[in-house]
Amino acid sequence: GQQLNQSPQSMFIQEGEDVSMNCTSSSIFNTWLWYKQDPGEGPVLLIALYKAGELTSNGRLTAQFGITRKDSFLNISASIPSDVGIYFCAGQDQTGANNLFFGTGTRLTVIP
Amino acid sequence: DTEVTQTPKHLVMGMTNKKSLKCEQHMGHRAMYWYKQKAKKPPELMFVYSYEKLSINESVPSRFSPECPNSSLLNLHLHALQPEDSALYLCASSRTGGLVEAFFGQGTRLTVV
Questions:
Q1: Contacts of B3 in chain A (CB under 8 A)
Q2: What is the pLDDT along chain A (112 residues), one digit of tens a residue?
Q3: What is the pLDDT of residues B76-93, one digit of tens each?
Q4: Which of A5, A32, A89, B108 has the smallest set of CB atoms within 10 Å of its CB?
C-alpha cells in the first residue's frame, strides 16, 4: 500500500490554541480526507478534498489540498478539550480504484 | 443516515475456531472496505469490494476470506487465525467513481487466544 507520512506524531497544546498538522505522500493523490478517531471507535470523517489547491472548512477545522497533490494540511482553531484524539489523513491515489490509504496519525492532547 | 453497522463489537476466538464479522450499510454505497488496525497504528487496507466484486486484495493471508452477498452487506470470514491477528477490524463504505468519502463502522475488537 501507499505510504503517507503525518507530522507531528503527537502534540500537546493549551485549550484555545490553534493546531496545524500535515500529511505528505511520495506519489500524487486524487483525493485527500481527514478523519478523527477516538479510542476504541471507528474513524469519523471531518473534511474531504478533491482538487489541488482546494481549501475547505468545517467549523473550526480548515484543510487544504496541496498544489503538488502530494500533501495536505489540517488546521484546528481555538482548540477545546473534545478535540483530543488521533487525526488521520487518508488519500486515494491515481489508479482510480476505490482504494483509501491512511497516514501515520497525529495524536492531539488538549490541556484545559 | 451515514451509519455503518458492524457486529459483533467484541469477539474472542481460539486459533482453531471459525467465525465471521458482519458489516451493513444502507446508504446505497457500492464500495465497501475491510481494514485492520493494530494499537497505536493507522488502519491498514485489507480488501475493497466495488459493485459486489472484489477489486482490491492487499496481499491478505487466506485465513481471512471476504464475502459481499449483496450491495448492503459485507462479511469477513475468519479461520485458523493467529494471536498476532488480534486487532480492531473496521468496515467502511463509500460511493464509487473516485468519490471516496468513506464512512466507517465502530469496528470489531478481535482477540485470538
A1: none
A2: 677 999 999 999 999 999 999 999 988 888 999 999 998 899 999 999 999 999 999 999 999 999 999 999 999 999 999 999 999 999 987 776 778 889 999 999 999 9
A3: 999 999 999 999 999 999
A4: A5
Task: Find the CB nearest A43 among B6, B50, B104.
Answer: B104
Among the partner-chain residues A31, A35, A104, the one whose CB lies closest to the CB of B100 is: A31
The predicted-structure confidence for B9-57, as pLDDT tens digits, reads as follows 999 999 999 999 999 999 999 999 999 999 999 999 999 999 999 988 8
Nearest residue to B71 via CA among B94, B88, B103, B89: B94
Give B15→chain A minimum CA distance, Å: 23
Contact yes or no for A62/A78 (Cβ under 8 A)? no
Element (H, E) at B96: none
Question: How many Å apart are CA B33 and CA B75, to the nearest integer?
Answer: 10
What sign for the dihedral angle of Cα A46, A36, A22, A33? negative
Which residues on adjacent β-strands are paired with residue A4?
A: A25, A103
SS3 label, residue A56? strand
Q: Are B10 and B108 in contact (CB under 8 A)?
A: yes
